[in-house]
Amino acid sequence: MKNVRYIMLLFVAALLFVRCDNSFEDINKNIDDPISVPSSMIIGTIVRDAVNELYSTFNGSEIGETWSQHISLIQYNDPERYKPRVTSMDGVWNRLYTCASNANQMYSLALVEGNKTNQGVALLLKAYCFSILTDLYGDIPFNEALKGPSDGNFTPVYDSQEKVYEGLLSMIEESIVLLKDGSGEIDGSMDILYSGNKSRWLKFAYSFKFRALMRISQKKDVSASLQALIDSKELFSSNDEEAKVVFLSVSPEANPIFENVVAGARNEFKMAATFIDALKSTDDPRLTIMAQEAKNGGYVGKPSGYEESPLPNFGYDDVSPIGKKYLEPTAPGYFLSYSELLFLQAEAAKRGLIAGGDERAKSYYELAIMNSLTENGVALSYNKFIAHPKVSYQSANALELIGTQKWIVLFCQGFESWTEWRRTGFPVLTPAAQGYINVIPSRLKYESTEVSVNGINYKAAIKRQGPDELNTKIWWMK
């Protein structure tokens, strides 16, 4: 009897052991530790990192805004005099390549998921990052970029800017095909640009392609492609569709300009005389929105680029601060605005790149101005403003009018305002009075370690493009 009991106990124990062992992994599985990251989860990281870099006061304000003469620095004005921080130029390079790499990862995850919509979003964001990189630096690693971890290539070849644009335009085209397919969903809670709205991502792709084509329109015949975009009826048609990040009201998720100028009490950033004078010369109703009165009275801008700082009579209390609307924590960060697109369409029509000529150009131009005045809360002044002799559309100087009004609309969009000024030359700007170089810069210098870690390809790039200096013109400027 004892032997029977013993055998039965061994049998039960063995059975329990097997059952416990078979269910051990299920019981101990961490449900908060997913096997793979959903592709949608990466959208917010890419968008937030890119917009924070572009809107950083060390980048968009100290470089883009002072070089396009929207903003002037009261005291620490080396960047305004064309001596930017090396850490700023390095940071933009590294951060945007990181964003492009994250977009690569998002694409790979979406491919595994069979989510063509997110594949399209990933390609579009990747193309956007590369467009900013090449517009800022010129020739850059492109075809061999982002491959280091997968194939051991940590010294990528620099591609010519012409080749980069060919490649990123192909990316945009592929993203459009994928987004039009429509299979797969975007998690709206992860999408801080469009909250999961596929149709708006598609409109961003079409509109961004229009801007990219206009960027190279003085080097390539892009008229057929531009007209096809017009005919598609898929371009932005309202502010609701434009690509912008609406920041939150508290740090660290607030607009970087607010975080530095207001929360960080950096009163260094004031209005430039060039910009204030331009607004005053046309009785522009946006003056009181884009600028505040100086503490000592009046709307006053500081002349750009003097070595002495503070410049006598242009101290902290003498010069107008940036307007309160543009210093709000929730002020949007733009990837591409509807107003900018309208001005690009106006230019395209005037130059004969799309159909319509002066009549169509005038329509786009006036709609862009009306849209900007509405955004700034001064739409009631439209009729008076549009009739001003320096604003009213005239065929003879239409490109200058379009370029100047676009320059105003791009206020506080530092890199984009500088880039569009480099492309069009409007308005005519005088270089900094006492700059380290005697011209407004044409590009940023390459990341400072490239000469040592990727020296052969770096040297080949500067041999083709020109010296690694701020005044070397990039391909679409030449």
Q: What does the model show?
A:
The chain has 478 residues and is mostly helical. Among the domains are: 223 residues, Alpha Horseshoe (Serine Threonine Protein Phosphatase 5, Tetratricopeptide repeat), CATH 1.25.40.390; 63 residues, no CATH class. Helix 3 packs antiparallel against helix 5 and helix 4 packs parallel to helix 18. The N terminus is likely disordered.
Report a brief summary of the structure:
The protein is mainly alpha-helical and 478 residues long. Among the domains are: 43-246 and 453-471, Serine Threonine Protein Phosphatase 5, Tetratricopeptide repeat; 256-303 and 313-327, no CATH class.
Secondary structure topology:
Elements: H1 2-22, H2 24-27, H3 43-55, H4 57-67, E1 71-73, H5 86-113, H6 116-137, E2 140-141, H7 148-151, E3 158-159, H8 161-181, H9 198-215, H10 223-232, E4 243-245, H11 256-263, E5 269-271, H12 273-281, H13 287-290, E6 333-336, H14 338-350, H15 357-375, H16 382-386, H17 398-409, H18 414-424, H19 450-453, H20 455-465
Antiparallel strand pairs: 1-5, 2-3, 4-6
